[in-house]
């Protein structure tokens, strides 16, 4: 599980402000906490009659989706609109590539249109990082999922959900269950949980769905639900990415469900007040039993609500950082001139 | 023509306000009149320089189209934007179902995003009603056409058009012509016309395109245009839903046109000041002759204009009702706590 | 190169204001200059923190694209949103034509929805002009490219780019290079350059890609880059419209590149301070060498930035003209009544 995009200094301005949001890895705890605090205020706002603030008024947010995802696109579109941004949705696979334009030309063109922010979804690991490297300091980039690498807004909405239900991270035992190997979500969750100081992070999966050297990320590995779930405070289920799965890795969906699907029987191993999470969309009867998904310990719909708030938080914070950074660059240019 | 969703009490709050708009059936005359009065004010507004009011500012309207309809979607999208709502268009057939999510999960997810209103189009009769039952009291639902069941905003824009041209409903003889069997529009029109007190409602169609027991709705049945159109004040043509028509029901388009297509010759049977209506899009030379569609008695384009106003009216009224209802529910929860 | 839509008086109100923007041909120099001056102010605005003005607030702009073009659509969508308009994107090929509606019915329906402006893209020459003739004076029409006829906003963004880099037009020698035959862009550029007073306009192309009688437009014809580019101040490359090209006209892409592709070697024939332009998207290695496209004399990305500003300019000007015109018509109606 070596990662070529390790610490990602490009995410922060020289003054330490968020400028892009590409990965949870390497971000300081104070910054993750600032994201959660800001998101908390947006959760409150979304219960108001007028769910709208002018923080991104007159700004242009481009949803640059190279990989289709209606659900993720919708959350970013709503978050941007509730921040009063002008929003442009671009499904890139069906447009400029048809006319043979290179990715870089597409990026330079969108930047020249005075876009302020790209929300990027791409099937290649590192794509958001590459794009950020091309458009800094003019455009802020939010990673909405890149290959197997990272899905940092998903991880942060999970952290927000945990904090709102459990308070502090320090005492928590957290288990991440399922297809760790293909999951950008799991990677981002592990980095965030470690930084925020969770007591113990466990991953539970069959050996075929575990990356090599996963222990190096600071997690305990289990291949058995009974032992892995024992006394945990948080159970984070992953989606079975059927579309990403090579044929040989799994015997069958029903076999997976039997061993790793979260049922009330298996949930009994966890702490009696454990919460159950899932990034959605749920495959009922594959990763999770309906009785659990819809049960009293499920916080799955809270995750959705918190997802809008977290996206509003990182979008407004990255826009502030990008703006501060652009002004600094301009000042530096003036001094050098 | 038995109807499992008969009176639909879910549409109204306990205080009698509109909360969803699912069907014209069973709604009291005062409420239909309130819709028409409110829509009248929006017709006036749409002639102003700035066609925009802040009634839905900070609200999220999701156009949830399980069945494609560019024209209907456009009218709802424009109506929502002129009410200052944030709008999300979702074509459901091509998104979450692909990932295997259930309809209910999609609804719960959208509700958790703090959506305030769903505009629903679906090929199944009763779909809008089912969706409303799942999301009350958090989300207001507007039916934009469900199967053969209802298309209530179409019916109300027709009522508005009749009232603006003819004044009172009581003295009017109205004929509905065409494919009654497959038409959700006809059902909604008949309910609205009865409630608003039209003197006489006629349906004119070949026997193969008439539902059984249609007389139980309080209409007179004709299979012949000459007799059916005699002295009517309003002629409401229906679309020939080619895509819905089973092969055996109709001999051919030209045969249909010969017998039921509205030509100036046939229109001569009606009252000399009769108006001609059609929900659009028109099949020229199939349901209607161009000379009639574009002639002095056609009010087809008025229907389009009135359609935006009626949609703005029911959207703003349902939002008020849903809001009042949500507050009442919250109060009740507090009392019970 | 005879042109059935020659002078296009429909574009202007009786008072000489822009009402539609269909072609650069026949427009007076004062008006083209007004467009450039207005666009200049929008370029300045787009560098501000809040890139938004309320000029089209409460107005409905419909992007009516009969031919897909993500890039052009995006620029018009952004321009409209930065003018605070409500925007509706309609891809017509996939919607109403499917239900058999005629173009005219579609137009009348959209007009009846109180649309204020259509941005029209169509594969037929003259389509925007026809549409304008149908909806005057209620709706302003902006031509976003019609067949081989015109692409006037592209031409005006090119003019703005030239003026911002070179100042006055009078002393300039300008070369247009590539597929002149199929290019609506070239036609619109030639008309604009002549009206604005450029000293010399050259076209450079193989004989097979030159329209007959092109000289009648007031240009000098070259089939050779070395002679055609000599001492020019501006090199305007065209896109090779592969999708429009009949098989027999060109030997091959590499053959074209060898003879007409803009390389630094060929650019050496031009004036040392010549600027290089291209409407995008670029086919690198077909029309232009990467070293030129990304080099110090390329102003290709300025064209993109100026494109938003020019679109905002013509949209706001046409809306003013259409409004003045509508009021005049209404006054005339009142006088006649």
From TrEMBL, chains A, B, C:
Gene3D superfamilies: Aspartate/ornithine carbamoyltransferase. It holds the Pfam family OTCace. Residues 19-163 form the Aspartate/ornithine carbamoyltransferase carbamoyl-P binding domain. Coiled coil: none annotated. Keywords: Pyrimidine biosynthesis, Transferase. PROSITE patterns: CARBAMOYLTRANSFERASE. Its EC number is 2.1.3.2. Catalyzes the condensation of carbamoyl phosphate and aspartate to form carbamoyl aspartate and inorganic phosphate, the committed step in the de novo pyrimidine nucleotide biosynthesis pathway. This is Aspartate carbamoyltransferase. The gene is pyrB.
């Amino acid at each position: 599980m070596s990662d070529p995009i390790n610490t990602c200094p490009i995410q922060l301005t020289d003054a330490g402000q968020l400028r892009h949001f590409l990965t949870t890895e390497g971000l300081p705890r104070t910054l993750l906490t600032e994201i959660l605090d800001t998101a908390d205020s947006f959760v409150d706002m979304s219960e108001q009659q007028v769910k709208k603030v002018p923080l991104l008024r007159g700004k242009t947010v481009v949803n640059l989706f190279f990989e289709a995802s209606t659900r993720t696109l919708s959350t970013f579109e709503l978050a941007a609109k509730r921040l009063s941004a002008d929003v442009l949705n671009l499904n890139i696979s069906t447009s400029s590539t048809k006319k043979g334009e290179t990715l870089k030309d597409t990026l330079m063109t969108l930047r020249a249109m005075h876009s302020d922010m790209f929300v990027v979804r791409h099937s290649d690991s590192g794509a958001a990082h590459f794009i950020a490297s091309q458009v800094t300091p003019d455009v802020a980039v939010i990673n909405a999922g890149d290959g197997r690498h990272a899905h940092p807004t998903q991880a942060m909405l999970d952290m927000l959900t945990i904090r709102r239900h459990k308070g502090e991270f320090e005492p928590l035992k957290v288990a991440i269950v399922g297809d760790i190997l293909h999951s950008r979500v799991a990677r981002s969750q592990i980095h965030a949980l470690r930084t925020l100081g969770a007591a113990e992070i466990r991953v539970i999966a069959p050996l075929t769905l575990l990356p090599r050297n996963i222990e190096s990320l600071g997690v305990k590995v289990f291949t058995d639900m009974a032992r892995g779930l024992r006394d945990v405070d948080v159970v984070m289920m992953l989606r079975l990415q059927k579309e990403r799965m090579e044929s040989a890795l799994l015997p069958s969906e029903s076999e997976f469900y039997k061993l790793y699907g979260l049922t009330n029987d298996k949930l009994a191993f966890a702490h009696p007040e454990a919460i159950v999470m899932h990034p959605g969309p749920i495959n009922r009867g594959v990763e999770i039993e309906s009785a659990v998904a819809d049960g009293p310990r499920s916080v799955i719909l809270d995750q959705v609500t918190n997802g809008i708030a977290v996206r509003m938080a990182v979008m407004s914070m990255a826009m502030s950082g990008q703006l501060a950074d652009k002004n600094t660059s301009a000042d530096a240019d003036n001094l050098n001139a």
